[in-house]
Amino acid sequence: MKKFLWILLLPTLLFSSSTLHSMRAFYDISYAIFGVIGHSKADLKIDHDRYIIHIEASASGIAKLMSNQRVEIYESRGKIVKGRLVPDILEIHTKKGSHFSSLERYKFDYKNHKIIHFTQKKDKKIVKKEKVLDYFAPNDILTLFFNLPFYLQKNSCSGKKCVFVAVGANEKDGRVDIQKIDDRFKVRLHRRIFASKDGEMFVHLRDDGICDNALLKDVIFFGDVKAKVTKIEYQ
Length: 235
What we know:
The chain is mostly beta strands. The protein is built from four helices and 15 strands. The chain has one domain (about 1-235). Strands 8-7-6-5-4-3-2-1-15-14-13-12-11-10-9 form a 15-stranded mixed β-sheet.
């Protein structure tokens, strides 16, 4: 069922903007017969040279029962350097109803060029583990898309694949492939989401850089899962 919540979360992970100011966006996640199966909310808070991105996904209706009222929360915190978001911490929280289930924390150590991964899970007892990732990345899965305009200045990715590395994309190496096709970006996270083998998603960005709709292709039992922005608030 964790993978099911990933379906709700994926479109919002790509929440972005070409200009940095505090804002909030709401998304509905739906597919064919069943209509809306969940909601995602994304917040960007800017305070001088610091930022916080907070993203939350939850199921609705019958999907809420299927997921045991599970909620997935991603939060990235860090600095703003020359218009780019530079992450210090990425946290991934999982809750079942109002109860804590698990926490993953990634700490970026730029001086030693490493990322420390801390996990805490609660089943019958609380288990804590810490390790250093096998790779280093200058972005997490949230900051990558906010920083994408900066990278696209160097490489358009039109008609060809651009390869990036972002913490939280996949457990092995953080690889993310991005390719511009017409007015959309094809994003591949190399992470299996049900039968969507590589987590392949097509994303459309508005002129201001905000993701207004996304399509996750060929998910087993679901077909194509769609996400659409319903409201945007500027603060």
